[in-house]
Design a protein that fits this description.
Blueprint lengths: L2 E6 L3 E8 L2 E4 L9 E2 L1 E4 L6 E2 L1 H8 L5 E4 L13 E4 L2 E4 H20 L5 E6 L8 H17 L4 E6 H10 L6 E8 L4 E8 L13 E7 L3 H12 L20 H6 L11 H13 L3 H12 L3 H18 L1 E5 L8 E5 H26 L8 E5 L6 H10 L4 E4 L5 H14 L1
Parallel strand pairs: 1-10, 10-11, 12-17, 17-18
Antiparallel strand pairs: 1-2, 2-3, 2-4, 5-6, 5-7, 8-9, 12-13, 13-14, 15-16
Helix pairs in contact: 2-3, 4-12, 5-9, 5-10, 7-8, 10-11
């Protein structure tokens, strides 16, 4: 029975196996152990995944890009269909095709087939909805079984990150694990030590788990709505009355998992009708151009890149000249905080809930372990560390800690 650990993330995916007495993440795309959670369908061709999918879209190959696939789990979108060439494909099956591709690459790299998987999952797929949460896990289990996994189990992603972190500590610690990913923010309070690491049953060491459906793609969305979408007409007035332009188009265009909803003739007609009645028709003309050219993902990629650049360097300029000559948006760190600061605050609030669930105070936490790409946002990091001022801050592999921990868990369960 060959076992693996699979971290299917909103932005990136990893898969690992136990080899030579240690967990090892497998190379899934070239020399990379991470592969973007993206798939591209081109008419008459096999679907491509990962960086190749993103490149095909950017290079203008005709077809349909889908990214942030995990976001539809727990939503009504999972059972809906989307047009792919001349057929309509369920989002559930799109996820299956993507994960089947990941599994095949991992098996080629490992030289063996995997029939057992420990799948990572967020603490909550959906906030405050236990039944929806159960359905999301059941759906992911069904998808895993449909692509050839015979034995499927799950582990919370922050617990998996804790297992990775525990490999490197020298003494017992009470750690709060913060996994701030692309789609969710998840927290666990876990008692860790070199001695406890070898135990098969760790249930007694887990004091609390909590999470919220907020992640990096939500920061992209709010930044886009605040800085880019007004250039396409969001918030602008209609000619008659005191109404503003309908905002649904802009929210879909700013949300990774909803962009493809716009790519149809009905939406284009509606936008054109709105443009004729708008006080600023030139702005709606820009929106029409983006949707007609199916360039929504290009826009989302540029916003994501600007978010990262602003976090790292303090500012960024989005050159939108491909929409209209000379069009651009400027973003600085103050603007990033202004548009997304509430998200950071809501994420940090979960630390208080975790402490309450564990029955400990902030001063009892020895270490705050940060993983996930969105921990790179300075105001998110500041919000988290402010909650635990006495805790030592430790960082893991931003995109690999969860996958490594899941691989450890897979080896333990298969033993």
């Amino acid at each position: 029975m060959a076992a693996c650990g699979l971290d299917f993330g909103t932005s990136n995916t990893t898969l690992g196996r136990w080899q030579d007495g240690a967990p090892r993440l497998l190379r899934l795309e070239g020399g990379h152990v991470t592969i973007p959670s993206a798939i591209f369908f081109a008419p008459g061709r096999e679907a491509v995944i990962g960086r190749a999918a993103m490149s095909a879209y950017v290079e203008g190959v005709p077809g349909r890009l889908m990214r942030s696939l995990k976001s539809v789990l727990g939503s009504s979108l999972l059972e809906e269909t989307t047009p792919v060439g001349r057929e309509r494909v369920r989002f559930r099956d799109v996820i299956g095709r993507y994960l089947a591709g990941v599994k095949a690459r991992a098996e080629a790299e490992a030289g063996k087939s995997f029939d057992t998987v420990v799948h990572g999952r967020p603490v909550h797929f959906i906030d405050d909805d236990p039944e929806g949460d159960r359905k999301a896990e059941d759906a992911l289990r069904g998808i895993a079984e449909s692509i050839g996994f015979r034995h499927v189990s799950f582990q919370y992603e922050p617990i998996a990150a804790a297992l990775d972190y525990e490999q490197g500590i020298a003494r017992e610690e009470l750690a709060l694990i913060a996994d701030i990913g692309g789609g969710t923010s998840d927290f666990s309070i876990v008692r860790l030590s070199p001695e406890r690491h070898s135990r098969a049953d760790r249930a007694g060491d887990i004091l609390a788990n909590d999470g919220v459906r907020i992640g990096g793609t939500d920061f992209d969305r709010m930044l886009s709505l605040g800085t880019v979408m007004p250039l396409l007409g969001l918030g602008s007035p209609m000619r008659r009355g005191d109404l503003a332009v309908p905002n649904a188009y802009f929210h879909d265009l700013a949300t990774w998992s909803s962009i493809n909803r716009l790519y149809n003739s009905k939406t284009l007609r509606e936008i054109e009708e709105t443009r004729r009645d708008a006080s600023r028709p030139e702005l709606l003309g820009r929106l029409h151009a983006v949707v007609e050219g199916e360039r929504g993902h290009s826009l989302a990629m540029e916003v994501e890149g600007a978010k990262i650049a602003t976090s790292e360097r303090g500012g960024a300029r989005l050159d939108l000249g491909w929409i209209e000559g000379g069009l651009a948006a400027e973003i600085d760190r103050d603007g990033l905080v202004r548009h997304t600061g509430d998200l950071a605050r809501r994420i940090a609030e979960r630390i208080g809930r975790c402490l309450g669930q564990a029955g400990v105070g902030a001063d009892a936490i020895d270490a705050l372990f940060l993983t996930g790409g969105s921990t790179g946002l300075p105001h998110v990091r500041a919000a988290l560390t402010t909650c635990l001022p006495q805790a030592r801050v430790a960082e893991g592999d931003t995109f690999g800690s969860v996958g490594t921990g899941l691989t450890l868990e897979a080896a333990r369960r298969a033993a």
